[in-house]
Amino acid sequence: MKKSLLPILLIGILQQLKAQDYIHITPQTYRYNDHAASANSMTERIKTSAIEYAKYAPVPRLALMDYAFAANLDEYDKLNGYGVLYIASLNQDTTEYPIKRVYFKINGDIVELQKIGEVKVDIADENTKRTFGKNRVDYYYLMPYKQTQVKSEIFIDWTSNRKDFTLCKFPDGNKLDYLDKGHIIPGKKTADMDMLNSFLEREYDIVLTKK
User: Fold this and answer.
1) What is the number of other CB atoms lying within 10 angstroms of the CB of residue 33?
2) Quick check: is 72 in a domain?
3) Residues 22, 23, 26, 30: is their CA dihedral positive or negative?
4) What sections of 79-191 are H helices per DSSP?
5) Cβ distance 154 to 101 under 8 Å?
């Protein structure tokens, strides 16, 4: 049966509540050849978090993530070593949108991720609205596998109010078994677009559309 695909606007290339006014929920999901998170499965995670963190409501902002890499070496080479990072951003204050940048910090150096798409997602669940608000935007970024295999962290800067939000830390013990060291470093500047579109359709149930 054909999947229902969510159109995504193509961009560019195609733990507790603390005084800093943010909340951390450390994601545990890593999939590259399984079934990565669609918008619907991410919604279910958000609903669960809304119940868990209801006592802190209203929570100013929440970011949940998932990421996926190539299923085999041929796909990895065509994607040029990139996977896709998927972030669902729920913000009470709409002036915080859009996310300004997502980036690795590695030994003091900054490596910014390239955004490939974003989509506004309606929120119907009342618990989610009470805890995290009525605003949600999902973002998709190219993420180089190489950076996930060294000591590093991914941070988010929103347009206003919040910078240096820690999203996740690497390495997290996950490796692509089909790789040897000679295949880790990307060669070209970006991924093959045909392969990227196929990858996004399979892993995230989305398609990229031009503006």
Assistant:
1) 15
2) yes
3) negative
4) 126-132
5) no
CA atoms within 13 A on the CB side of 84: 30
Structural domain includes residue 203? no
Q: Which structural domain, as residue segments, surrounds residue 82?
A: 6-182
Question: How many C-beta atoms surround the C-beta of residue 103 within 10 A?
Answer: 20
What is the token pair recorded at 89? 């951003």
How many domains does the chain divide into? 1
- Joined together, the tokens standing for residue 185 give 């470093």
Q: What is the pTM of this model?
A: 0.84
197 belongs to a structural domain: no
Region of 84 (left: φ > 0; alpha: ψ -120 to 50; beta: rest) is beta
Nearest Cα residue to 184 out of 201, 199, 202, 171: 171
State whether residue 18 is helix, strand or coil: coil
Confirm if 112 and 150 have CB atoms less than 8 A apart.
no
- Tell me, yes or no, whether 196 lies in a domain: no
**Could you tell me the CA-to-CA distances from 153 to 25, 89, 148 in Å, in that order?**
15, 18, 9
Please report, in tens digits, the pLDDT of each residue of the chain (211 residues total). 333 344 444 444 443 333 334 333 434 443 333 455 788 999 999 999 999 999 999 999 999 999 999 999 999 999 999 999 999 999 999 999 999 999 999 998 999 999 999 999 999 999 999 999 999 999 999 999 999 999 999 999 999 999 999 999 999 888 898 988 667 766 566 788 899 999 999 999 888 776 5
